Amino acid sequence: MKHFCELYWRLDSTxxxxxxxxALRAYFEVAQPKDAxxxxxxxxxSRIKRLVNTRLLxxxxxxxxxxxxxxxxECYDRVGDLAETISLILPPQENLSAANDEDxxxxxxHALQNLIENQLTPIRDLEPDQQRQRVIExxxxxxxxxxxVLGKLMMGGFRVGVSKRLVIRALAEHTGIxxxxxxxxxxxxWQPTAEFYSQLVDPDENETAxxxxxxxxxxxxxxxxxxxxxxxxxxxxxxxWDGIRAQLIRRAGxxxxxxxxxxxxxxxFPEVANAASQLPDGTVLDGEILGWDEDANRPLExxxxxxxxxxxxxxxxxxxxxxVVLLAFDLIEHEGEDIREVxxxxxQARLQKVIEALAPVTTEEPNSLFETDADLKPAAVAIRQPxxxxxxxxxxxxxxxxxxxxxKSFRAEGLMLKRRESAYQVGRPVGDWWKWKVEPYTIDAxxxxxxxxxxxxxxxxxxxxFAVWKEDQLVPFAKAYSGLTDAEMRQVxxxxxxxxxxxxxxxxxxxxxxxxxxxxxxxxxxxxxxSGIAVxxxxxxxxxxxxxxxxxxxxxxxxxxxxxxxx
Amino acid sequence: xxxxxxxLTTTPRxxxxxxxxxxxxxxxPVDHALITxxxxxxxxxxxxxxxxxxxxxEVLRIRMGDKANLSxxxxxxxxxxxxxxxxFFPAGHILGxxxxxxxxxxxxxxxxxxxxxxxDATCRPFEPxxxxxxxxxxxxxxxxxxxxxxxxxFAGINDWWxxxxxxxxxxxxxxxSLGKAQRMLAGVDATIGSIYTHGAVEKLNxxxxxxxxxxxxxxxxxxxxxxxxxxxxxxxxxxxxxxxGTWAKRFGKLSVAxxxxxxxVRGTRRRRAxxxxxxxxxxVDWDDLLRTIVETEAEQVWVTHGYSDVVVRHLRxxxxxxxxxxxxxxxxxxxxxxEPA
Lengths: 567, 341
Description:
- The complex is a heterodimer.
- Chain A is an alpha+beta fold.
- In chain A, 34% of the residues lie in helices and 22% in strands.
- Chain A folds into three domains: 2-154, DNA ligase i, domain 1, CATH 1.10.3260; 220-435, DNA ligase/mRNA capping enzyme (D-amino Acid Aminotransferase, Chain A, domain 1), CATH 3.30.470; 441-566, CATH 2.40.50.140.
- Chain A contains 19 helices and 20 strands.
- In chain A, strands 3, 4, 5, 6, 7, 8 and 9 form a seven-stranded mixed beta sheet that branches. In chain A, strands 12, 13, 14, 15, 16, 17 and 20 form a seven-stranded antiparallel beta sheet that branches.
- The interface between A and B is medium-sized, with 29 and 23 residues.
């Protein structure tokens, strides 16, 4: 715990990548494998199942600190983080040496693995009274910074500005093993055990678990003119979809569907899994899962797909209302062989053969003896190649630009440009895959409500609600908080404090005076919003110092964008 | 003893003693101003006459300039002004900082100004003063603010400086030029390397030395030949506004640290995008604030700048007669346009 806390605070106190990697390497030098693997587990974004109800943690902290509940809330409001608030408000540590002697005297009581497996995890199954005792005992043994880390371990959610990529880089430097190999080994589900750690750092390990996905190849946003990419015939253009990027694995008679967040989502998409049962063993597809409108031959709105996510089981009704498909655009394992080094054009040719071999499957039995096969609409194959962007070969960038312009009418976010000869690489290398998105919509809107942020933005008013004009009234239509510089945030914060009209709990209504340009990706009708619309990914693109509230856009303008999008 | 305390009242110009016809730390120009300490939210320009503790003579003179009409009173020695007795007691905030006790007809009010209870080699320690009404600051009046031992903090600063030397980075420590900067200078281990200062800091160092406070050798950055100086072995003490501009360019690779009570909270520390944040304040933390109130044995507590509404609500729950008093003091601010620490 001591080493891990030191690592945590070293990572937390710098924004420089090099220093973070150095800190991680220093940690891997001293940590035992059984502890290091837990550190990797947390730093790469995994968490342990929550041990204790946060409401109880709050209660115990209030009791130990001997403060009123409202005073605790005032503090929380300032700090913006529950684990940190608790760590600060508790009385000082009692036994100064307790948490520090893990490496001297051979005492391992507080080594990370022991702490988690033997002290924290058992707490989950205790009665609240015993939980309380154990938690308070732990609090007493640690200092403020250690309590903070302890709180993060207990509550889950461990953000310290370290990406998985950075952890992998440090491990690669520490072990001398290729980063790509480590990335692959860390894919999918694994248990944080010393044994797994030794596999992770084993220079010879070759074996692949049947469920293990490949690291995704990600595209970079295209910022320059596409013509800078050279000859257009060197490139394959595909629609860029707004769905769930997924990798489908068929090995040893089993199917696994992984999302990019490395969640196993097989059960959430039974129609895809069902279609996959026809794939030969040793096949891995890369593609996008989308809700699909067969009649229009384009995706359903993203909000429809959202209804299918995060469920343990998908009901019949939902299956019928929001059918999904996997649009497979790449083949990365074929006949049991890793073909990532094969050029994209050849991979896609093989992909086409694999997909063509799939037969439509009927998932339902005929309802009655009188229903003939002809009445039954065969379920379309839920794994298919995506509709192409053009029937004829593209010869000029200008033709592609025209197609690009039409993206929104296909419910696509733009185009993907992939070099014909590209290998399937790891991560987000620059050069071979580009995402060429269409311009976002923008709207000038007025700031009307503000709320304090969390974490780094705690105690500054940084979460805003914006309004546009509906006749002579300002109606709220979007919330946004990113896109301002720190200096601008402080300026807006000052404005909010000086121009508060009313307070509703943590929310302040402010004099409508500041105008911002908001950018967003998509508009949908919504019955839940007062304005009648919902926007996707709203963010502040710039502060319009030059505009007055009267110059802000009208709701009608946004509605007309919606109409343009709908036809 | 008067039933109600009307010895001091709040007016648009500041805290006013009508019987004595003087103000304490007024924020608008007045005829007679009593000053708790030389920070600019407490000692403002434009009043006709100023009176402060004699321990603060040098620094207040530097702050107010030659033309201001300043008088000085020894600590602990009562002075009668229009029948009102005024006594200055040390507040432990910065050099010369004082609480002001105001008495008439057996009733006494103590204005704390800014104060702390943690040790500070550059000023006289705070003395609790018994009174009927205690007017206290509340800059850090939340139970999340609990200061670590300053010795531990200085050890951390020394380690940071040494490790910067090893990695070839110049150590820049940001601290307000009056008070915090000198406390830093007196606290760090000057054998580690040379110490250089920003002009604003050096100006006040002279005042501290003139008042007999021992500070290590310092040299103004502007007096050095930029090319001939080993910046990356040195410690540079400067006000927060000094980085970000051209002034700091000459030092090469930097590690920037700030010492402030606000560094207790991670979000604040991260928002300042500093390399290190050291928790060191010249104000009382939560425990010391409450302890001090008890020690004054006051019947009434007035709470000013900071988390005054929170502190008042807490005090009332504990059975105190407490109220919020609105002032224009700012306490320890992190903003560059507000200077005092």
